[in-house]
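Forwarding these from the shared drive since the link keeps breaking.
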Amino acid sequence: MKAAAGKHHPHPLALRPDELASRIGVSRRTLYNWLKHPDASKRLPQPFKMGRATLWRADAVLAWVAAQEARRG
């Protein structure tokens, strides 16, 4: 079953840069800066390519966010 154009699944398997940035409240530039963070424990998971689209696995991002929250205490 295909989603209608312009509608987002409430729990997508993968996120585009704009979707990810919006969901965590940062700019796209910040996402790409986090990919290169010198501290590996703070580094955003690597995206993957599907065709020309750059995507992040939602489960990997959720695990990364949880790890960042745990670091803060």
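-- next protein --
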Amino acid sequence: MAGSVSRSARPLTSSRSSPWPNLGNSLFRADATFCPENTADGFRLRSINLPDGYLRHYQAAGYVAAPGGARASDAQNSFDADVTLRAGPPLGI
């Protein structure tokens, strides 16, 4: 969606990442910022606004998840594998 970003804001009912329009304020900018952290197997993206939150691919959707947290998307099972990204060659080349 043009002019929008995925935000790390976690409503009480969900941590699912979804597109939000740019509101132009400091909270929006912080919610939309993820910092890469190197790991032994690649890297992961940590939320600036939620220091315990990582961008996670879980059950075919994107979430901001905290390891061992209260939500289903925070489950420890395969957490490291789900939040770790690996750079590789482009597909189809």
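The beta strands are 4-6, 19-21, 34-38, 43-47, 54-58, 61-65. The helical segments are 26-31, 79-83.

- D.
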